[in-house]
Design brief:
Layout lengths: L7 H7 L1 H19 L4 E2 L2 E2 L1 E3 L1 H7 L5 H13 L3 E4 L10 E5 L39 H4 L5 H9 L8 H13 L5 H14 L11 H6 L4 H31 L9 H9 L5 H6 L5
Helix pairs in contact: 1-2, 2-4, 6-8, 8-10, 10-11
Length: 279
């Protein structure tokens, strides 16, 4: 049996139907915030249609639901917008508004929404009743602090399904296909490259990691790194010629470059000192 809760003081302000729906919306916004999902315009959001709300609250008519939502918006308890990638999808998105609730931020015990369906949709096949969402600790039971560096390098408004993203990344690392540092660099490169993309062109994190969309960024990084290394070796070889000939240009050689030449076997310590390199 579903259990729906509400704040009595809030019910006195906006009515019981609006208070129940507000509690439900707050619950899922809190869930998304903990899992860093659906972040848009500086807020965390949940989405639902009146049809989906009707399935979740069968004792309310569609008209009562619309009236309740209007009251919440008018009272500035919630704001609404459309953030759907599919322009034909008219599902409404909701975020907490600027008004202060009678009891402050709603306290949302897990059992209060047991059996309540999650964010709905204007499309019937996207509505599936679900059980209480996991807490942040449960969702990240096997949390990897190192992967969190990669996760936070990925654009915040496109992070989705932390566990699936982490598992796909970890699998690639375990197979020796990529390093954690390379994935972080790839995520940073993608964030920079896609900053001006329209929503239809962006990729959510679970698809990006699972579909190996990081590969081209990693390949590009490896090519750039190899080129830089080659240039560095060529530069050291040139410096070594200065040292061997005791050129006046040796005064431009830094201590770290001198050590690198010595470690590469290009010159000896004695040659560096004789050429006047400070080492």
């Amino acid at each position: 049996m579903k259990v729906h809760c509400f704040d009595p003081k809030l019910a006195n302000q906006v009515g019981m139907a609006a208070a129940v729906i507000f509690y439900h919306i707050s619950f899922w916004i809190d869930h998304n915030a903990k899992n860093e999902q659906n972040f848009r315009d500086g807020r965390y959001w949940t989405y639902n249609s009146v049809k989906a709300f009707s399935l979740q609250f069968p004792y309310l008519t569609p008209k009562q639901i619309r009236t309740a939502l209007d009251k919440l918006v008018t009272s500035r308890l919630i704001i609404k917008a459309e953030h759907n990638a599919d322009r034909s999808d008219r599902t409404t998105w909701y975020a907490l508004g600027d008004a202060i609730c009678p009891e402050g931020q709603a306290d949302l015990p897990g059992e209060a929404n047991e059996g309540v369906a999650p964010q709905g949709s204007s499309k019937e096949n996207r509505y599936k009743p679900d059980k209480e969402p996991p807490s942040r600790a449960e969702a990240r039971e096997e949390a990897d602090p190192n992967f969190d560096k990669v996760w936070h390098a990925y654009p915040a408004d496109r992070r989705r399904n932390w566990a699936a993203s982490r598992d796909a990344a970890r699998a690639a690392i375990d197979r020796g296909e990529v390093s954690l540092e390379e994935l972080q660099s790839a995520a940073e490169a993608y964030a920079t490259e896609s900053s001006g993309y329209t929503r239809s062109k962006v990729s959510y994190s679970d698809n990006w990691f699972g579909g190996r969309r990081w590969q081209r960024y990693v390949d590009r990084h490896r090519v750039d790194r190899a080129g830089a290394a080659a240039k560095s070796q060529a530069a050291l070889a040139g410096f070594a010629e200065w040292v061997i000939s005791r050129s006046e240009l040796c005064r431009n050689i830094s201590r770290s470059q001198g050590i690198a030449m010595q470690e590469a076997g290009l010159v000896t310590f004695g040659q560096l000192r004789a050429a006047g390199v400070n080492i």
